[in-house]
Amino acid sequence: xxxxxxxxxxxxxxxxxxxxxxxxxxxxxxxxxxxxxxxxxxxxxxxxxxxxxxxxxxxxxxxxxxxxxxxxxxxxxxxxxxxxxxxxxxxxxxxxxxxxxxxxxxxxxxxxxxxxxxxxxxxxxxxxxxxxxxxxxxxxxxxxxxxxxxxxxxxxxxxxxxxxxxxxxxxxxxxxxxxxxxxxxxxxxxxxxxxxxxxxxxxxxxxxxxxxxxxxxxxxxxxxxxxxxxxxxxxxxxxxxxxxxxxxxxxxxxxx
Length: 256
Known about the structure:
Blueprint: E1 2-3, E2 8-11, E3 14-18, E4 23-27, E5 31-35, E6 41-45, E7 48-52, E8 57-61, E9 64-67, E10 71-75, E11 78-81, E12 86-90, E13 94-97, E14 100-103, E15 106-110, E16 115-144, E17 153-181, E18 189-199, E19 203-213, E20 219-230, E21 235-245, E22 250-254
Antiparallel strand pairs: 1-2, 2-5, 3-4, 4-7, 5-6, 6-9, 7-8, 8-11, 9-10, 10-13, 11-12, 12-15, 13-14, 14-16, 15-16, 16-17, 17-18, 18-19, 19-20, 20-21, 21-22
């Protein structure tokens, strides 16, 4: 079944069309291919698919797999709103992305805006490769000849050199509500609202609101009941407003 107006193509071993109710029910390994407003192609499979033509709504049940070029989503059931380019899911769906895993009791996915909204016991686990300054001790031997009386002498020097090495970092985000925006690298952010917490191997942030920006979450802003722990330098800061920039090692926290 091809709906060129709504850019939806449905495949199935068996299909039942009800003209009076304006519904299409698909059985026997159905497959749905949907092209969104941003021309992104989404493939959806589920044992049971029911499309409400008049409402531009598709209900998927009994185990759903949703795939596009950014995410693979596994859920018990889902509702697709075709005109809004949105997918709603509940009962703790799993979202797998590049170097990222997300879950929460409820999920709202807006493919046009590139937003994933998680609610109730929301969590994101993200890995990234980052450069870290490491000190290396290097022993060097210098041989010098000093006149006719010395045949040679070696001197051992211990020097410290700085070297940037790439390491894998795991960041954990949690909160009552999380918004993950996956646009361009400059536009990317992860926002946590209510019991917000962000933890990395080197730092931890807790507040009512936390927002991390950039590909590797290098910049962070937090508000209301802010606590920051710097594990590398054994420092704990608290206040109500925080700005943090990891590349420049800048931290500013105040009570206002």
